[in-house]
Amino acid sequence: MDLGGEHTEVGGRLLQWSRATEWVTREWRQVLVLAVAAASYELGVVTDGSGFIAAWVVSWAGMAVAASAVLVAGRRLVRGMDVPPAQQAAMKWRQAEEASRAGMQAWQSTSDAQS
């Protein structure tokens, strides 16, 4: 009997609900994730299934949800920037070139004055 997918959905909804209602603090959310994985393992064992596979499915589903949340947050951050990252990188590169050029000129002028 495979209850991994159903248990993943219930665990995910429980995490969303606890976040939305501010029922748990940020630190305790991490414990809730482990509790959902442990509960899915136990559910797999009790139903004569593989507890390891049930916990593995829940863990991978959790990682997928977390990865998508990080990507969405990154996109929001980039969209909210006044200057796009590519343009910022080009400006910093130009600044570094100018600083390098000024340093070389100062070094050469000091060497010429000593000669």
What does this structure look like?
12% of the residues are buried. By secondary structure, the chain is mainly alpha-helical. The model has no long low-confidence stretch (mean pLDDT 80). The chain has helices at residues 4-20, 26-46, 51-79, 85-114. The chain starts with a helix and ends with a helix. The chain has two domains: 4-80, no CATH class; 84-115. It has four helices and no strands. Helix 1 packs antiparallel against helix 2, helix 1 packs across helix 3 (51-79) and helix 2 (26-46) runs antiparallel to helix 3 (51-79). The radius of gyration is 27 Å and the shape is elongated.
Q: What gap, in angstroms, lies between the N and C termini?
A: 87 Å
* Average pLDDT metric: 80
Radius of gyration: 27 Å
Helix content: over 70%
Q: Assess the beta-strand content as a share of residues.
A: under 5%
- Overall spatial form: elongated
Number of helices: 4
- Describe the sheet with the most strands: none
* Unreliably modeled segments: none
| Helix-and-strand structural type | mainly alpha
Count of the domains: 2
Name the helix and strand elements from N-terminus to C-terminus, one letter apiece: HHHH
List the helices and strands and how they pair.
Blueprint: H1 4-20, H2 26-46, H3 51-79, H4 85-114
State the gist of this model.
This protein has 115 residues and is mainly α. The chain contains four helices and no strands. The protein starts with a helix and ends with a helix.
